[in-house]
Amino acid sequence: MYTPAPYLAAVNVHVKHSGTQNKVETLFSKTKGFVHQRWVQELVRVGRRTEFGLIVEGIWGYAGHATTYLDDFVFQKCTSDHHVSSCASSEWMCADRDKCVAVYERCDGKRDCTDGSDEMQCLSEYGDCNFDMEDWTTACNWTVDTVDGKPSWTRAKESHSEDTGPPSSHQGRPGTFFLVANSSWLPEGSPAVARSPVFPASHNKCHLRFWYYMKGSLSMDYLRVSMLISGASLPMWQDVGNRGARWLYGHAVVGHSEPFNVVFEAHRGGDAITDIAIDDVSFTSSCSEGGDPTGHPSLCTEEEFLCKDKSMCVPRDFVCDCQADCPDGSDETDCGEPRIRVQSFVSCMDGEHCIPALLLCDGVRDCPDGADEHCGQ
Question: Which residues cross the membrane (predicted)?
Answer without folding.
Answer: none
